[in-house]
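Re: [ENG-882] Designed sequences occasionally contain unexpected residues at chain ends

Forwarding the minimal case from QA. Structure tokens:
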């Protein structure tokens, strides 16, 4: 009976993770269209510290969509291990790519289609070889997990590095290096997953009739989650506003998933009882997803023309016009264009330094 219940909860978590990817993938498109509309009006951009997007209904639509997705994601962590739920977030990238082809004039070429196929294949492999986490059934046992020296060291490293990135690296390199803001989102996001897990346990105990509102740990986890999500939204907006979405999305996925898998491995010992075959399967599935995401975004604007074929195949394509992608002017979609011109960003930074 226990095994049946375990499998039942596993598939509930899987379904919630898939639903989450659908809503989160849609939110990227809505947010980007909202930011583009603000750009056309000449409003102060988020990348320069502006908050005009708070008055844009499209941006709010994206935020609501992301909220629904995150709520489904929240519930998925209650039923399934984080090492399974987090990598399935790659499917939100596929949803974003498909919707971009309809709403942002993005063309999904052969490389993108192969990337989508690889991402789905990698996700399937990860589902088959998903690890099992140690049972944590109460807030008391969750507290014992949080007191583990390994997790304490990990949390201190995350907090110190995030503070350095926000107050030291951010003002200097945030406008030029995409890794700065994404590293902040990813590292803080790994702690938010631990908070979500703990709150999920608290919700289970609440439904069982236990007075969890009297437990200080539950309130600490809730406050920590709100702070972590606020930081993630703020710096993800900055990254999306300054850099191409085709750059932000795959880098954020890889760094965030790696950070979450590391946090879960330390906190919940998810890899402790895995056999070698499942370890290889999980890692291979994750790397396959990464490869698919790379193909999906790295070659988005490269048309598959006859002159890209090997030399020994070109003689069979004489009737096909061979227009080189390097020589012809491509139509780049709104999804891939940065909202801030690099010269404008550099000029703004110079003016700020002179004023100081």
């Amino acid at each position: 009976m226990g095994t049946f219940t375990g499998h039942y909860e596993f598939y509930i978590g899987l379904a919630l993770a898939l639903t989450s990817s659908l809503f989160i993938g849609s939110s990227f498109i809505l947010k980007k269209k909202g930011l583009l509309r603000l750009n056309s009006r000449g409003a102060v951009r988020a990348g320069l510290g502006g908050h005009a997007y708070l008055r844009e209904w499209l941006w709010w639509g994206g935020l609501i969509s992301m909220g629904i997705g995150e709520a489904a994601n929240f519930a998925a962590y209650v039923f399934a291990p984080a090492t399974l739920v987090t990598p399935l977030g790659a499917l939100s990238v596929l949803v974003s790519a498909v919707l971009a082809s309809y709403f942002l004039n993005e063309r999904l070429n052969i490389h993108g289609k192969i990337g989508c196929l690889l991402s789905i294949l990698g996700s399937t492999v990860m589902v088959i070889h998903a690890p099992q986490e140690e049972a944590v059934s109460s807030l008391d046992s969750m507290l014992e997990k949080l007191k583990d020296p390994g997790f304490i060291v990990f949390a201190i490293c995350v907090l110190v590095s995030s503070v350095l990135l926000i107050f030291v690296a951010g003002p200097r390199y945030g406008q030029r290096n995409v890794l700065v803001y994404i590293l902040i989102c990813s590292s803080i996001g790994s702690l938010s997953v631990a908070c979500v897990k703990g709150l999920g346990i608290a919700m289970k105990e609440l439904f069982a009739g236990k007075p969890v509102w009297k437990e200080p740990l539950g309130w600490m986890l809730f406050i920590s989650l709100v702070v972590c999500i606020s930081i993630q939204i703020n710096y993800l907006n900055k990254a999306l506003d300054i850099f191409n979405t085709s750059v932000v999305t795959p880098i954020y996925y890889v760094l965030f998933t790696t950070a979450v898998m590391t946090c879960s491995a330390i906190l919940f010992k998810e890899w402790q009882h895995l056999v070698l075959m499942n370890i290889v399967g999980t890692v291979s599935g994750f790397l396959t997803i990464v490869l698919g995401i790379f193909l999906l975004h790295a070659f988005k604007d490269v048309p598959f023309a006859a002159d890209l074929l090997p030399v020994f195949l070109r003689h069979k394509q004489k009737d096909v016009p061979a227009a080189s992608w390097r020589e012809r002017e491509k139509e780049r979609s709104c999804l891939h264009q940065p909202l801030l011109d690099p010269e404008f960003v550099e000029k703004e930074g110079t003016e700020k330094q002179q004023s100081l």
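QA comment: On inspection the terminal residues look reasonable. The radius of gyration is 22 Å. Proposing we downgrade this to a documentation issue.
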